[in-house]
Design a protein that fits this description.
The chain is an alpha+beta fold and 90 residues long. It has a single domain, classed as Alpha-Beta Plaits. The chain is built from three helices and four strands. Strands 2-3-1-4 form a four-stranded antiparallel β-sheet. A hairpin with a 5-residue loop joins strand 2 and strand 3. The chain is elongated and about 50 Å long.
Length: 90
């Protein structure tokens, strides 16, 4: 399953977040794969796509960062998969 993860950086914590990332990397648990990410120009929100067979593993990863970032985790499917789902369920 893929997940769109919206990260809202805590005010005043962006530098600390990037320092932790520089020191420890993404700290992904086994079974979680980073796909890509985009950050708004104000450097306050990050949108990223991750992949994992287990939502618990995504939550394990979130727990490594939630002192610096608020997370919204949304399971997503591709547009092609959505189209297929719509037409097979009719």
């Amino acid at each position: 399953m893929q997940y769109m993860i919206i990260e809202k950086f805590h005010t005043g914590k962006v530098k600390a977040m990037y320092q932790r990332f520089a020191e420890r990397g993404r700290m992904l648990p086994e079974g979680v794969i980073y796909i890509n990410s985009w950050i708004n120009e104000a450097v306050t929100v990050c949108y990223q796509v991750m992949e994992s067979e287990s939502p618990e593993k995504i939550q394990e990863w979130v727990s490594q960062w939630n002192d610096l970032v608020d997370f919204e985790v949304i399971p997503v499917i591709t547009s092609a998969k959505a189209k297929e789902k719509v037409f097979t369920e009719i």
